[in-house]
User: Fold this.
Amino acid sequence: MYKLLLCVRYLQTRYLAFVCIVSVMLGVATLIVVNAVMSGFSTKLKDRLHGVLSDVVVDTDRADGFPYSPDEIRRVIAHNEVLKDKVAAVSPTIEVFAILQFTYPNGAPVMKPVRLIGIDPADRAAVGGFAEYRVRQKDQTAPSLDPAPDALKRHEENREHAARLDAVQQERIKALEVPQARPLVKDPTALPEPDLFQGKAPPAPQLHGAVLGYSIAHVRFTHGGEMKEDRILQPGDAVTLTTAGGAELKPVWGTFLVTDYLKTEMSEYDQSFVYVSLDQLQRIRGMGDRCTALQIKLKNYDRDKVAVTAELEKLFPPRDGNRVATWEQLQGPLLAAIDVERGILNILLFMIVGVAGFSILAIFTMIVAEKYRDIGVLKSLGASSGGVLMIFLGYGLLLGSVGAALGTATGLWITRNINEIEAGLTALTGTAVFPRDIYYFKEIPTNVEPLRVALVNGGAVITAVVFSLLPAWRAARLHPVRALRFE
Assistant:
């Protein structure tokens, strides 16, 4: 009992020990905040990557796609003994690189390289990672690529405006032309023009829609110290997509109307993805009823991913130019880089706790030197060496525990209010601490992991005890007669 009383007494009277407490508190708080932010970014990134890529992806290097139609592939999967009970949904897609062409509102032409993806909206929504990221049709059970009425209205307005400009241009050209003599009699040998529509009005051309990545259709800029956003492509504006198709992979193109935007809050995807109808992209590229990739959703990803990928490799052999991979394997280097960076940051920041440990070592050494007489009195009264050892080890344990508790409270408070703190620092310094134009996140993501918090606290307490071990051992070895010799 006397050991605990002395530990508490030293904690209350030795104000120098509060330096150790503050050091441990700062180290623990810093580690908790950094881990929460890193975990938040990692979790948000994994959610976005998983949503966009689906559970398992099968693709081929063949430009004309798999040698089977999507319906044949579905039948094979549905009758496979391994896959039929594990696969929840399959979405055939075409993924190719393309050039996007459109005109800025000021009339300047623009060309951008994009990743063109042909999908069936219902199939892609069943796999996930499509409907929930759309802006105008967010979370709709039956998303569509067809232009909405407002998009068709804007398209018609654009056509009328272009027609007026063309008429003005034609009038200017006619005013500069020199009149030429024309024959008064029609050539009798000329064949009559065929009436393709049998006297009826020609049918209106079918208008196909495209879903653009959010950053393709929007630009961000700073005006008056504030971040502004402007939409340069409205629903109903026309864009031209040029890619390679046919047996000889010659340039082919098609014109589409903007119908919606895909906002994953990841700039890599929002500035490069363009979704169009699978049927229309098949016609443009001359692929028939084929696809180049399969997006597959599993009923239980963690349990079935190994068995499903192994069985799919049998159906789509790698020697034929096919690849079967989970979303984690496709993004392996990026996910590994995040984990490595997080581990290195933990090691570097734990040095703050190490500094606190050296402070404990120095202060405890001073306390032992000052308490020679007290230690001698305790031993002469019957205190054992083990008891004296436990006094100073308990003192170190108490310092580490109090510092870790205060650090945990401080770290959790900072994590909970980190966006308000960031806003205050931005207003104070005039420089954005968290530039949102990089990640397109509305706020700094955080995720507190209880296990990680417990490990940080445990490491801090153990460090405090370990660094108090040497002074405690010196105090335990002290002989009472030597301690009281000069008293």
User: Anything to note?
Assistant: The chain has a mean pLDDT of 79. Residues 62-168+205-320 form one domain. Residues 332-370 form the longest helix (39 residues). The radius of gyration is 36 Å.
